[in-house]
Amino acid sequence: MRILSIETSCDETGISILETTGALGAISPRAEIKVLADIVLSQSSLHAGFGGVFPTVARREHAKNIMPVLLRALDDAGLLHIIKEPRVLVQKEKDTIARIFHKEAVLMEEFYKSLLDVSIPEIDAIAVTAGPGLEPALWVGINTAQALGELWNIPIIPVNHMEGHIMASLLVPKPEKDGKKVFSLSVPHFPSLALLISGGHTELVLMPRRGEYEILGQTRDDAVGEAFDKVARMLGLGYPGGPEISKIAEKAPRAKQVPYPLPRPMIKSPDHDFSFAGLKTSVLYTIKKIPELTSEIKASLAKEFEDSVTEVLISKTRDAGKKYKVHEIILGGGVTANKKIRLAFRALVDKEFPEVKLFIPEQYLSTDNGLMIGLAGLLRSNKVKKNFVAEGTLRLSSKAREPFRKPLRKNK
Fold first, then answer.
1. pLDDT score of 380
2. Could you tell me which of 179, 175, 114, 172 has the C-alpha nearest to residue 147?
């Protein structure tokens, strides 16, 4: 089976083409996944001036980039074949594609210009992120996928972005073939626990069985990646904030006593929820009390902030892992690229969960990419849908194992 996947949930335009053997709709250690193409185009430099992702800019850039990225992916996969006589669509096909792109006239024009002289590639399905994410950005990927499905007569599989992050963590590298990366997927031993940490999400998810998810806890305000970005901005650092904070935190002087102590929010609460807005505010108030924010002080604050976040994530995951007697802990999302967090979780498992297996994605797979969407699409290959919409707040599960508490504050 070959699957083309599209990811446009935030500020990365990602398209991958995967070829797999073995049973579909299941995770099998015998299945070999060959990456025929994997292209990611990031917009982070464009959003740096905003200190975060600006949705309308993200949508515009996805619409501008998605056709060139698609053509490059097809070319990398050896599936780009130009035909002498461009296709002529019947009126019904034109009407359907016009309806799909009714708010994207420019994208529709690029779609026709790019693909009518391309032969139908040997692809069995198209997976696309349906949510969660920024809805204007999500729609670019969804509209493109649905138009491709109409043009090529290929089924569409809507994918949950967060499930993609889990799947990316389960990849096991194999020897390359024909210059292409090859993976297998590790089969989880249930129940498993997933900690999903990114710019928009902080969730603890129990996986009692294959393909089933129960949310144990989530952030009540800022996601952990969002807190990193905001604190980095307070310290006069660049965007994205996570790598910038980690970089200067490593330069912090080692002292017996922390010069600027910060709280560990909700670390002793009996639930599995998180809160990082108060920690962010504590950093702000601390900065206001300091007459001169020197490089050394910035490094100390960055280290203390990173330590606080790490300790909270470790504590909540430890409690959930013991309570539900999990066999595996899976980390997913962009914040898993953080060196301190990776080392802390390895130490946690070595010391307190010696029988538990830890899965952490390769750093290049921790951020958003089409490959992870393709993996989730393979798992859901029997979940074809013709009509679906972008869902910015799409959840992995509609039910929670534990009742959610009211937010600490109202989101504006």
1. 82
2. 114
Per-residue pLDDT reduced to its tens digit, 94-120: 999 999 999 999 999 999 999 999 999
pLDDT grade for 225, boundaries at 50, 70 and 90:
very high
Q: Are residues 127 and 168 in the same domain?
A: yes
Q: Are residues 161 and 241 in the same domain?
A: no
Q: How far is CA 112 from the centre of its chain?
A: 30
Residue 209 φ then ψ, to 5°: -145, 170
Q: What is the pLDDT of residues 317-339, one digit of tens each?
A: 999 999 999 999 999 999 999 99
Per DSSP, the chain holds a count of helices (H) and strands (E) of 13, 12
Residues 295, 309, single domain; the answer is yes
Q: Domain of residue 324: give its range.
A: 192-361
DSSP assignment of 55-116 equals HHHHHHHHHHHHHHHHHHHHHHTT---B-SS-----HHHHHHHHHHTTT-HHHHHHHHHHHT
Task: Tell me how far apart the alpha carbons of residues 392 and 137 are, in angstroms, rounded to a whole number.
Answer: 10
Residue 159 in contact with residue 129, Cβ under 8 Å?
A: yes
Measured on CA atoms in the order 357, 358, 363, 364, is the torsion positive or negative? positive
- Within-domain flag for 111: yes
CA 361 to CA 347: how far, in whole Å? 16
Could you tell me the two tokens for 2? 């070959």
Number of folded domains that form the chain: 2
For residue 197, the model assigns a pLDDT of 96
Residue 58 makes CB contacts below 8 A (sequence gap 6+) with: 10, 11, 43, 47, 134, 136, 137
Return the pLDDT at 27: 56
φ and ψ at 131, to 5 degrees? 155, 175
Q: Which residue has the higher pLDDT, 354 or 253?
A: 354
d(CA 64, CA 75): 19
Q: Is the pTM of this model over 0.85?
A: yes
The structure tokens 């965007």 sit at 239
Phi, psi of 408 (to 5 degrees): -65, -30
Helix H segments across 235-338?
241-249, 277-289, 295-323
29 by Cβ neighbours in 10 Å (0-12 / 13-18 / 19+) ranks as: exposed
pLDDT of residue 410: 43
Q: Which two tokens stand for residue 233?
A: 């901005």
